Amino acid sequence: xxxxxxxxxxxxxxxxGAIAVIRLSxxxxxNIASGVFRSVSGKELYKxxxxxxxxxxxxxxxxxxxxxxxxxxxxxxxxxxxDVIEVSCHGSVYxxxxxxxxxxxxGCRMANAGEFTLRAFLNGKLxxxxxxxxxxxxxxxxxxxxxxxxxxMRGGFSSEIAKLREELLNFASLIELELDFSEEDVExxxxxxxxxxxxxxxxxxxxxxxxxxxxxxxxxxxxVAIVGEPNVGKSTLLNALLNEERAIVSDIAGTTRDTIExxxxxxxxxxxxxxxxxxxxxKDVVESxxxxxxxxxxEQAQVVIYLFDSTQYQEQSDKFKVELExxxxxxxxxxxxxxxxxxxxxxxxxxxxxRAEIPEIQMLSAKTGEGVEDLTKNLLDLINTGxxxxxxxxVTNSRHYDALLxxxxxxxxxxxxxxxxxxxxLLAIDIRQALYHFGExxxxxxxxxxxxxxxxxxxxxx
Amino acid sequence: MMxxxxxxxxxxxxxxxxxxxxxxxxxxxxxxxTLLVTMNLQNIAQMSCNPAMGGIAKGQIVREIDAxxxxxxxxxxxxxxxxxxxNKSKGPAMWxxxxxxxxxxxAEDWRLMLEQTPNLDFYQDMVSGLLVEGECVVGVKTSLGxxxxxxxxxxxxxxFLNGLIHIGDKxxxxxxxxxxxxxxxxEQLVDLGFDAGRMKTGTPPRVDGRSLDYSxxxxxxxxxxxxxxxxxDITKPLTKQRDCHMSYTSAVVHDLLREGFDRSPMFNGRIxxxxxxxxxxxxxxxxxxxxxxxxxxxxxxxxxxxxxxxxNGFSTSLPEDVQFKALRSVxxxxxxxxxxxxxxxEYDYFPPTQLKHTLETKLIDGLYFAxxxxxTTGYEEAASQGLMAGINAALKVQEREAxxxxxxxxxxxxxxxxxxxxxxxxxxxxxxxxxxxRTLLRQDNADLRLTPKSFDLGLASEKRLKRMEEKxxxxxxxxxxxxxxxxxxxxxxxxxxxxDSALVKQSDKMFKVFSRPNITIDDMRKLDVVxxxxxxxxxDSEVIEQAEIQVKYSGYIEKExxxxxxxxRLENIKIPENFDYSKITNMSFEARxxxxxxxxxxxxxxxxxxxxxxxxxSVLLVYMGR
Lengths: 462, 626
Hints:
Chain A has about 450 residues and is of the alpha/beta class. Chain A has three domains: about 5-125, 2-Layer Sandwich (Gyrase A, domain 2); about 155-215 and about 395-455, tRNA modification GTPase MnmE domain 2 (Four Helix Bundle (Hemerythrin (Met), subunit A)); about 220-385, P-loop containing nucleotide triphosphate hydrolases (Rossmann fold), CATH 3.40.50. Chain A has helices spanning about 30-35, 95-105, 115-120, 130-140, 145-155, 155-180, 190-220, 235-240, 285-300, 315-330, 350-355, 370-380, 385-390, 400-420, 425-440, 445-455; strands spanning about 5-10, 20-25, 35-40, 50-60, 65-75, 85-90, 110, 220-225, 260-265, 270-275, 305-310, 335-340, 360-365. In chain A, helix 4 (about 130-140) packs antiparallel against helix 5, helix 6 runs antiparallel to helix 15 (about 425-440) and helix 7 (about 190-220) runs antiparallel to helix 14 (about 400-420). Chain A is flat. Chain B has about 625 residues and is of the alpha+beta class. The mean pLDDT of chain B is about 90. The interface between A and B is large, with 41 and 49 residues.
């Protein structure tokens, strides 16, 4: 990939809006913009200082395309570290396209996905975890995921990791101190201090590692499988939740043969719903494939919704109960929501009977919308989003997760070593491994850094 | 006119300190005609600072030098007055031998060993410049105007290049107390395109031992069972030793020292260069750690017979009257008489990033640097560089492959790689924490690591190699014995009980019990069958110790070996010599600049350069086609 050319792309979301921002980055960015911009005050753009904003018109030869604000960022003080121009223009798709086309004709290249961020990273403007957060931010399509990515980009993640790294560094320094400077007249940490420090590191590491599970669902959405007989209204429910007709809805049983997936944001959390065929016994070959798929989806789901047609309850209650037992036995740990659909078609007595027989049942009419709100509330309650609400750092990147996990393993060894009275030089091996894995996130801890920390804190030297 | 020097020497070594002496010995022993030129032949192998060799990490280096066939280990043994194995309470990788030395005997023994070395000539004169043709060194010229031809030259100028001594507000040119500085070489090298810098170090006062009251001090004896440095059987452990003593400074002493701060060259800006953070002057200590109300002083005899005493911990460049007055307030020093005051010295060095792994300069072919000229401090650091430079100069003359030790093979490898890859901002001293794989780099196995290599070079004798091989095969046999022999609960449990270790319920291999952290070889020898093995095979303490380390630390040693292998994989990815970093635009400017300057040989070396990030390394790997 070449980085000598100048790239252009829309910096605001695609589609119409009040205004749109078009960004150029690269060595020719200022020249190219200068050639198509006519300032109201008659200034030449390329002569202007960095971090200045100019009002004027974008012109294609003599034709005025739009009135726009142009902001200049000269390297290295820009997002990418290169010369950057940001054109704030009116937000119609037509104008956006006209301006971008103009820039392309004048020598820009259309930016690849994430290329601005890539350049920022390569020019040292972002560290790796920040760059990854930007990528996540671009891809995020729900509020919580956006929040995590934003926090990470602003360095929330980096700062917590930096704090942890410092704890580890101090720990390693104390160990190295008693190895390299045992002859010095300094106060060495005793083993109980070490234990305290290692407990603290374990605690923070564990919290970060655990946050990955939360982070992961926030990032990817929480998978929810909707299970039930054909024609019990699964697709209608999905549509009610999605608020748009996407799944196939018909009154003929077994229409939904393929599992359909869609994502919906509830309370800022992404949920991915799988509409599945039911799990009844069948001889129909096509349908039995669908049933096998149902179980696969239950396997992957974090939440299972069992949906049945309450008008069928009188005749089929035994069958429902068997199927429910099947799911409960097979997946005892999975949160299960039992929904009686089409309650608009049955009377109160019937409802009372169902409640008595299946206490955890919830009433729903996907058609009228009754019970949909309860369902969404229920879904949110099932997900532990405590960490998110408390605004704690959440690990969403699997590379980070992996490194933290490995560091955690090594720290466990250090802890064990401390408990069994292992000598410092051997403890140091595990500490160094932990630091190494940690360094995969934050950049490596060098020996010079360790020694510098010792010299700064202890009076060394005869 | 008849010339003093008819021949063209293979190797000329300039300077006869620890680096120069090792360089000359190595080159000469490898069969090269070698000339050692120094300003004063009476001052070969001087201990300019403390009368001691070894210590933590440094003791390991001395063992490595000995294993490679250098002389420092032997001379340290013959001139020792006290031996201590430091860090004995830690794991074996930390055990570090250290001796107090008889300063005069150390220098004398070095000179006598050099005199007995074949192929080695001596000459006393000051080298004032190099003879350079094109980009090759072809000899040296002296202050008497003599040109001496050579194929290679090793510069080991120590603190002599434009040396400037400071005592209080006085300063004067000098390379060491009482010796003049060397001029001309720095200026010529700078003209040739070298970068030069300035460093600072210091030394404490020497005093008259007869004026001290030792009854007010704490006695510091040597080890009860002293060991030694050299793996050879030429030297023997000490049978008698001299004590050192310890005293403390006090708030009163600190106040007296502070009175002289306005005349201190450290604080009034006269000294601009950086001194080592780990070897601060006493004024630096009380200034930086003001809350510490006392500091240790070690009172070290300078030899068997001399009354001169070295006051370790009182390094200073304060005015001599301030030094004197303050020291007189230290317990035991009330009537102290000075032999000479402490002083600071500034000297020229050449940032070592200008060197290759062989210690040959990148700019001038055949020119090698070793010791303080490279920004290091310490006799051991200097000696090991001298040895490596001498070996590589000889190999170059003999058109043989260069000799480089990597970081997992020796502290010497760590030292040189650090120097040429990262450079150094302060005098560089070795610490065990600088080594990634220190459980591999132990003082007990330096012979196993390095003697075979030294034998291949033609330095270590076959006798030495055989001795090493026998030692290690006996140790391995002993380890196998523990692996193969079972022990019954009734025999081992009483021993385990006495050590508060969990009892065993059934017979098991001895190795398993022995591996427990708190079970030592002495515990195991309480078993008749183990003691019988030791007696039958006539195992000496070295072999027994070696076997114990193998048993107890095998897991860790294995782990570090695996890690080292991982490192070595990156070590094997070579970067072409003329690789153009400027074309890698997707790398930070800083990284490109550093890489262009250091020109690392391998990806692994590149990764150790400060300013080169893990992502830069990934980018490099892409360019190397991985």
